[in-house]
Amino acid sequence: MDERVRRRARVDGIVQGVGFRPFVHSLATRFGLSGHVGNDVHGVFLEVEGEPAAVECFLDSLTEKSPPLAVIESMAVEELSAQGGDSFEIVVSDAAGTRETLVPADSATCADCLHEMSDPADRRFGYPFINCTNCGPRFTIVRDIPYDRPLTTMAAFAMCARCESEYHDPADRRFHAQPVCCPNCGPRLRLRDADGLPLAGDPLTGVVAALGRGEVAAIKGLGGYHLAVDATHQDATATLRKRKHREDKPFAIMVADVDRARSLCVVDETEQALLTSPRRPIVLLRTRPDTALAAAVAPGNHELGVMLPYTPLHQLLLRRFGAPIVLTSGNVSDEPIAYSDDDALARLSGIADVFLSHDRAIHLRTDDSVVRAFRGRERLVRRSRGYVPQPVTLAWDFPRQVLACGAELKNTFCVTKQHHAVVSHHIGDLENHETLTAFTDGIEHFRRLFEVDPRIVAHDLHPEYLSTKYALDRDGVELVGVQHHHAHIAACLADSAESGPVIGVAFDGLGYGTDGTLWGGEFLLADLVDFRRLAHLEPVPMPGASTAIRQPWRMAVAHLLSAYGQHPQEDLDLLRRNEQQWPTVAEMATRGINAPLTSSAGRLFDAAAAILGMRNTVTFEGQAAIELEQAADRDEPASYPVAVTGGAEPLRVQGADLIRAVTEDLRAGATPAVISARFHNGVADMISEVCTSLREATGVSTVALSGGVFQNVLLLERATARLEARGFRVLLHARVPANDGGISLGQAVIAGARDRIAR
Amino acid sequence: LAHGAGGKATQTLIEAIFLERFRNPLLERLEDGAEFAVDRSRLALTTDSFVVSPLFFPGGDIGDLAVNGTVNDLAVSGATPLYLSAGFIIEEGFPVADLKRIVESMAAAARSAGVQVVTGDTKVVQKGKADGCYINTTGVGVVETEHRLGIDTARPGDSVLVSGPIGDHGVTVMLARGELDIDADLTSDTAAVSGLTAELLRSVPGVRAMRDATRGGVATILNEVATAAEAAVVVDEDRLPVRTEVRGASELLGIDPLYVACEGRIVVIVDGEQTDAALSALRAHPLGADADVIGRVGEDPPGLVLLNTAFGGTRIVDLLVGDPLPRIC
Ligand SMILES: [Fe+3]
Ligand SMILES: [Mg+2]
Ligand SMILES: [Zn+2]
Ligand SMILES: [Zn+2]
């Protein structure tokens, strides 16, 4: 016999439920190796034996050619002595012990399945629930682990003989694909009318006809119900807006393929890769002028959220319907998306004309993820379906498990275990009961799924956040309060696999400061443990508190007062438009009547937008700032200068300079496009000026940019370029959002880092 | 010490400092007043201190507030108010004419509430040590009703009523400070509700609890009910009686009428079966002419107050920890 070697390997990461064992089996067979492969609670274990060269090639291919949904975090290989044998086997799972393996995220239908679905000779021809080990529902159908069919919502479907044999055949693409099914044994579509009564005929044909008539269809997807209308139908899109009580916030659309996306929007290479990735997020794209889309899809917006079909059902629907469809979350206003059939019928009955549903239950509600491309990279805006529950992997272990409760709006929570921080799906705004329930139930689900029992609970400092109150209600845990903007910067550090110290620029709407005022235009010297507030925007009052957020013109009044003192700028259109109210609002600002102070950068953008007359009131978060950004003339090079005052820490940055410059330029007849550009350039200059002066003081030359304001691509672009030109290394968000969706990760790593030094 | 808006901060303070040291079965209930037996009578005792700026405002002044506030605490506990004490802390240099005016309105309020001020005390403190004039009143009443009142007796199926439009007092006082140029035809709702509560208790056996919605407003009362009863309280936004003037001023000021103080409005929890009877009883009285059903007690979610918004959503009406600060990022 030739010389034979034997190796044992342990593979950790997302390696279960993604076709890893059949992949190992076919690879080993191809190289003529003997041995075995199996799953246990730690991941995948395997032994191979054969000629040395073949074993080496096998081990290389293992990481290089792993299945699309697998994520290999580590592989440990050890040498054994050869034992002989000539077969390669898949051994049975061992479910004992603790659960350290990771549940995979949901994944878009793979090319093989699409091919079968389109093949009239295939037994799954036209079947809307086709899937395999390389694709299909995962996280949304898992009730508990280990990830096996009986613990998913597919347990309700007994496999037919043919599916069963595919499921048990190591050579089959459906080997141990938990949701495997076919038209004989799997879920079925059904169509109901607005009252929930079944409609006769083929459900897909029925819903296509309804969309064609301009009706609103509720469609059960992977993570919940969507509301759909023909996106080229003026009346249908307007009706949907009215029924959903959604005034201006853009709708996302789904198109059949990249070419269709390209006919509506500009799509570069990165964006094409994002559109077609198995995660299938909504990709924010720049719209082309004069398309067939109805005006109500994204009123006044130059950007459109576009996604491609990610389930076989969506594939079939888009193939049949042809035109792009609006696909927006199935809810009223800001409530969470409906995901159970009864709930959908009850909550959406006043909105949808027909319900396209099916009998595969969704266990966990997840919204569509939203991403954009920036500098050739994916940047998450909303991280949910397709991404969750893939963990953020850190270079260090959490000494104790942490639960981080996140912020109030765009809430996510985060649990940690070993070196993993698992950020939850997008929960939403914690202001109604449904969202709060999704938050508390979600935490319980994660406890089971990841077998964690966190004794450290991290929370925001804002006493009125429902997530803070939830944390404070926990018994027998160690509470760690984390300042909001420190959490933003720590999230950016963890996202970039760094630990600081950095100059953290945290610009957002607002967050509770350690001094009890509202912060939001912050320059922090920060690492994962602590921070110092080195500089911030000069605080201004918010006359009417939350009302000043919904009514940016109030922030304009406050900023004008701070820029010009007591003299109201009566020649401004802004004041003429709000003639009735502004004297009172100005009084409130001056006397501090229900006018808390804030150093918010977001509110500065609101004020600028309002002074330019873009918008007096907003109907969704960030609306004024988004419109300001979109108005900017990108070729305008000039910039407004900003003074930084006070030698003592913290430095105070005079946002009033920008407000005065905006106002004077407006008086001088400059266009909003030019003013907006100069304003953006001014903020970018200010950021780089302040960072430069802080670098002199601290010696720190890395900057982290975080907070919702940095979703403004124009600002992000300009600020990053200026900082880099001055020799800074700039850390940006990619895997978690810069907005409050990233707060829970920041809280978690801060709590973990503090726990590490305390030991 | 933070300035208390009557929310969770105050509640925590009370429990940590006072309850801890004074602990006894009567205090432990943390009701607005205490009820105890003396011989064959059941008596109710309550006390309240009054601080308001300005001292005089449309519809009232600190004097009638001081009488009505204590009378109302007795009334909602089911007692018939009888006697009051009055303690004054007066800043040096306070105009005697103003003091006269305050005392006269106290006397008038006492007369119309059917109570007598039977003892009192006056202290004058140095200039700058008090904001004009503070008043403390203590009241004694007799409990003759058979009702076992208490917010912990609320149960799913019960109805929630208010005796009239909410927020009038708080908004009136805010505007009366004269700092803002807002024209609103508004007066405080300050009034003694003892007649109203007596009428209600006499004719509706299913009354479970009554509360006067003072500091922290109706929202705070509803949260107390939800917590005590371990039940949900669900209110409908479009059924909340709010005067147009109050709504307008609240919008301008950025405040929520649900959290604004009233001084003559009560929240009533009544057996759902007797909703109509309670509504008629309230409406039969001049102080309850604009009474309405605003919601109900439900099972789920226990301990929370939910508001069904005008466009079909729900919002959690939370107990505020301190001064309300925006939460939007
Ligand atoms: Fe934030
Ligand atoms: Mg009292
Ligand atoms: Zn597949
Ligand atoms: Zn089958």
TrEMBL record, chain A:
Metabolic or biological pathway, per its Swiss-Prot or TrEMBL entry: Protein modification; [NiFe] hydrogenase maturation
Active site (UniProt): 21, 39
GO biological process, alphabetically ordered: protein maturation
UniProt GO molecular function: acylphosphatase activity; carboxyl- or carbamoyltransferase activity; double-stranded RNA binding; ligase activity; zinc ion binding
Pfam families, sorted: Acylphosphatase, HypF_C, HypF_C_2, Sua5_yciO_yrdC, zf-HYPF
Residue span(s) of domain YrdC-like: 201-386
Family annotation (PROSITE patterns): ACYLPHOSPHATASE_1, ACYLPHOSPHATASE_3, YRDC
Keywords: Hydrolase, Ligase, Metal-binding, Zinc, Zinc-finger
Family: Belongs to the carbamoyltransferase HypF family.
Protein name in the entry: Carbamoyltransferase
